[in-house]
Amino acid sequence: MELSALIKKIGHPLVEIRVRALKNIICKLDHSLISVADIVQEKMLFVYLLEWFNFPEVPMQEEALELITTLSKHPTAAQMLRDVGAVDFLAQLSQKVEPRLRAVIDGALDQLFQLPELMPSHTIVYSGKTQTTTEVLPNAVRETVRCLKFSVFPWLTLTNTDRHILSSNEGSLRSSNLNLVRTTCELLRDVIMQDFPLEVFLQRPGIVKILLSLLSVGSGKAEKNYLYFQALSCLRQLCVGLRRRLRCHQDPSFYSTKQDPVSQNSSFSHEVQGSQPSQASSPAAEQSPRPSVVGRPGQRARGDGQDGDATSNGGSSHRGGAAARAPRQTPQSPVAHLELPDLCVEDSLELQLQQLTLAQFSVATIQHSIPLLKTGRSSHVFHRVLELLSEAVLLLGDSVSELVWDDGSLVGIELKEKLQASMELLGDILNFHHNCSAEISQSSRIHHKMAYTGTAIFTIKLLQTILPPEKWPIWSK
C-alpha cells in the first residue's frame, strides 16, 4: 500500500487535511489494514508527527503522542525518531502540555532512551490491540554504515530564481509532449548542467528520477528512441560532472574553516557576488556563450569547478567578464522588474532527508541502464548505454567500497541487494546475446556478438570495482 502521499498530508498547512490524514493512518492501524512495520521506514512520518505540535492549531494531541509512543517501541522507528531530534523536541514539549499528556511523552522518551538491543522487537501494543510483527532488520539498526567512501555533498541553498528554473524544467520533463521533453533534455545538458553545481540534482532529485524513468519508456518509435539518447546523454554528463565535483571537494585547497550555511558554491552566494561588477574582463570571458539568468546583472558561475566559480573575484573570471560587458541595470530597466512566481520557502530538513547519496545515484543509474543492453535492434542505443555505464561504474567506485558485501546496515543491505539484482540481470543479458537464434540475419548476428562482448567487458569492470577477489567463488556457485 502506497502511504507516502497520505503521510505527506500530515504536514499540510490546512488543519482539516492534517486531521483527516492522521485519523486515516490511525484507523488503518486499528483495523490491521497496515502494520507498524509497514510505516517505520517512512522517515518523513516522524518529522511530520513532531511538526504537528508546531502549528498554531494543534488538535488530536493525545492521539499523535500515542502514535509516536507506539512507533518508538519498534527499533527501526526508535532509531529514526532519535535521528530527527525527537528526544530534545519531546523533552521541551513536555513542559508546555497538560499533565495527562506528559505521561504519554514520558512513555515515548523511556522507549527512546533504551538501547536498541534491549528494545522489544516482536510484540507491539496499539490502542488496546496486540499486533505480532516480525522484527524488521534489527541488526541493521545497530550496524554502522561502513561501505560508503563518500555520502553526500555539502548542502547548497538556492534562490527563488534557481528553484523556479529547476521546477519549471522538471515540469517540462513530465510533459506528454515528446518534443518538449526532448528540447528540455537538450537544455539540461547544454545549459543548466553547465550553470548549476551538479550536486544540486542529487539534493533535489526530481529531475534525476525523471531522467531514469525515461530509460524505461517503451521502444519502437523513433521519437521514443531519441528520448533514450537524450536521457542517456544527460545522465552521462551528470556522472562526469559529479566525479569532477567530488575531486573538487576532496582537494585540500578547496577546504574552508568558515562554516557558512550558505555554501560559497551555492547560487545565493553567486547572486550576491554577481551584484558587484568586476572592473576588468578577459577576452575569453567576453566571448563566453553561456547566457545569464534573467534578473541578474552578470553571468552565473559554472558549477563544474572549471572557471573559478567558488572563489574568483578577479577580472579574469567569467562572472566578472559578463558583469563588465553587461550594462548596469537602472531602476527603470524592465528586466530588473521582472518577477518570478514566489515559491514557498524551502523546507531544508525535508529536502535533505529526500536527497540521494552519491552511491544511491550511481547504483540507480546502473540498475536502470542495464536493461537497455538487451536491445536487439539499435547498436546506437547500446553504445550510448555502455558509455553511461562506464562513467557510472567509475562513480560507483568513488562512492562505494568492497565492504558493501559485509555491511549489515540498512544502507549497505539496500545497495547490496540492488547490485546483486543488477548482476543477475547482466547474466540474463549475456545469455540472451549468446543464445541468439541461428535463423537471424548476418548483421543481427554481428550485433549480438558485439553486444555480448561489450556486456561481458562491463560486467568484468563492475566486478573488479566493487567485488573483492575472495568473493568471486560465491558468484560461481
TrEMBL record:
Residue ranges annotated for the Rotatin N-terminal domain, each copy included: 16-112
Region span, Disordered: 254-333
Pfam families: RTTN_N
UniProt biased composition (Low complexity): 275-300, 308-326
Amino acid composition bias (Polar residues), ranges on this chain: 254-274
InterPro entries cross-referenced by the UniProt entry: ARM-like, ARM-type_fold, Rotatin, Rotatin_N
A GO BP entry: ciliary basal body organization
A GO cellular component entry from the record: centrosome
Coiled coil regions, renumbered to chain: none
Domain of life: Eukaryota
Name by which UniProt lists this protein: Rotatin N-terminal domain-containing protein
Organism: Periophthalmus magnuspinnatus
Upper taxonomic lineage: Eukaryota, Metazoa, Chordata, Craniata, Vertebrata
